[in-house]
Amino acid sequence: MNTSNDAALTMLREVAADGTASAPSAAAAASGNTARPATDTVLHLNGISKSFGENHVLRDVSLTVHKGETVCLLGPSGCGKSTLLRCVNWLEIPDAGTVHVSNRRMGVREGSSIKMSDAELARSRARIGMVFQHFALWPHLTVLQNVMEAPLHVLGRPRDEARADAERLLERVGLAGKMEAFPSRLSGGQKQRVGIARALAMKPDILLFDEPTSALDPMLVGEVLNVMHSLAQEGATMVIVTHEMEFARQVASRIVFMDAGQVIESAPPEQFFGAPQTPRARQFLARFRSPHQPFDDTAGDAPKLL
């Protein structure tokens, strides 16, 4: 079973069932403040814990992301990075802690302990763009239709407007010539760029990327990283789970290093890669030491975004 595909389709179907959506930098350290986040804060996590049976995947994780930041989550496999992203959009419900997106609480009605209805949760999720490892495209829809689907059925946008926006976004990610193609005719890198365009079509407040290049052939990684690099330069607010160290070094506003379900270190990339402060971070980076090679933003066939 492809859980990434199932999760993506479930999110869009839940939002579509409701038929509406609410209208929607300096690096910040991880925060334990339980107060409502500041107005320039896009994402605020406080004390997030999550277990699966006896497996404690997240342990009291707090994190704040401000508008325009690109935060890269690094850490060994299985340390809780992907689970943390899934807790942000409530694909996984935290056992403890709070999530605020654009100053609105996820999962629970503001000022109460009453759980959100499915419709309320769907409206909250509409503010979050999620790009999965395994693309999660509808195989029976063309590339253009995949990008138009959520704006049409979630935001209720007129078809002509949704189409024009989808065409513009596909041109931005270098796929103007693939609009009428079906996903089965695309390379992995092209599919992931469709996924990015689809997320952008919802005009989200924040973009979450869950290892967006892990399922790609190494020759196709550059074209996806190039699009993400351009988004960072444009000031998009992003949280990226990645194992691409050089990419993280060059695009991140801040590196958040996780291990064993905890945030171990949070620092600007030049500090984290040049002088990590904790033994676990130093041990992790030692596995990736190699001669410095700048990120090649001309790799692949995706153009820089305008």
UniProtKB/TrEMBL annotation:
<dbReference type="InterPro" id="IPR017871">
    <property type="entry name" value="ABC_transporter-like_CS"/>
</dbReference>
<keyword id="KW-0997">Cell inner membrane</keyword>
<feature type="domain" description="ABC transporter">
    <location>
        <begin position="43"/>
        <end position="285"/>
    </location>
</feature>
<dbReference type="Pfam" id="PF00005">
    <property type="entry name" value="ABC_tran"/>
</dbReference>
<dbReference type="GO" id="GO:0005886">
    <property type="term" value="C:plasma membrane"/>
</dbReference>
<keyword id="KW-0067">ATP-binding</keyword>
<keyword id="KW-1003">Cell membrane</keyword>
<dbReference type="GO" id="GO:0005524">
    <property type="term" value="F:ATP binding"/>
</dbReference>
<keyword id="KW-0547">Nucleotide-binding</keyword>
<dbReference type="InterPro" id="IPR003593">
    <property type="entry name" value="AAA+_ATPase"/>
</dbReference>
<dbReference type="InterPro" id="IPR027417">
    <property type="entry name" value="P-loop_NTPase"/>
</dbReference>
<keyword id="KW-0813">Transport</keyword>
<dbReference type="InterPro" id="IPR003439">
    <property type="entry name" value="ABC_transporter-like_ATP-bd"/>
</dbReference>
<dbReference type="GO" id="GO:0016887">
    <property type="term" value="F:ATP hydrolysis activity"/>
</dbReference>
<protein>
    <submittedName>
        <fullName>ABC transporter related</fullName>
    </submittedName>
</protein>
<comment type="similarity">
    <text>Belongs to the ABC transporter superfamily.</text>
</comment>
<keyword id="KW-0472">Membrane</keyword>
<dbReference type="InterPro" id="IPR050086">
    <property type="entry name" value="MetN_ABC_transporter-like"/>
</dbReference>
